[in-house]
Amino acid sequence: MCCDRSVAATMFSIYIFLETESRDPEKEKEALDWVEAILGQPVDRKKPYEEVLKDGTVLCDFINKLAPGSVKKIERKGTGFVLRQNLERFQAALKKYGVPESETFQTVDLFERKNIPQVTLCLFALGRIAQTKPDYTGPILGPKMSDENVREFTQDQLDAGKNVISLQYGSNQGASQAGISMGKQRMIAD
After folding, report:
1. CB atoms within 10 A of CB 37
2. Number of domains in the chain
3. Is 173 inside a domain boundary?
4. CATH at 106
5. pTM more than 0.85
6. Residue 34 near residue 141, CB atoms below 8 Å
7. Helix runs in the chain, H state only
8. Which of 4, 49, 145, 187 is found 20 to 30 A from 130 (Cα to Cα)?
9. Do 61 and 93 contact (CB within 8 A), yes or no?
10. Range of the domain at 113
11. pLDDT tens for each residue of 78-107
12. Where is the Calponin-homology (CH) domain (predicted)?
């Protein structure tokens, strides 16, 4: 019994270590600063980052500032199930706003603290997408999305490229299996 507890304690401490190692407090602060700037009011910085965002009310108010009417109903009080609906509504609004699904977080990532770095990544993705909207004039979070970089080649340039052997294909010049001995020879005795 004591061994099971020690193993569980060790596994929990490894999980906490990995969780804190992958989190970036500077990025979390930057994301909260951006949320505050958009909302026009401060958030409770006495609470940890994930606690500020956990019930989804701040996130729903936030997305409604970026895209008015995105979340029609925001639950301010209630049980865990009721408050999780705020996160689901926020995620649906993110997808409508243009944030790729691969960069959104799942409800349990925030509500159960399963993957807090994914929440931060999602806010940075939202910041990147917001910069592409023509009516957005607010503060900037994260890098700007790249614009199109169209390149045009003449037919002569395309034909010349067909004659070049790319080093990505590798080379087998001088390759042979001579001198390779793998393992011990099999001794068969009659």
Report:
1. 14
2. 1
3. no
4. 1.10.418.10
5. no
6. yes
7. 2-22, 25-39, 49-53, 57-66, 80-97, 107-111, 116-130, 155-162
8. 49
9. no
10. 25-130
11. 888 888 999 999 999 999 999 999 999 999
12. 25-130
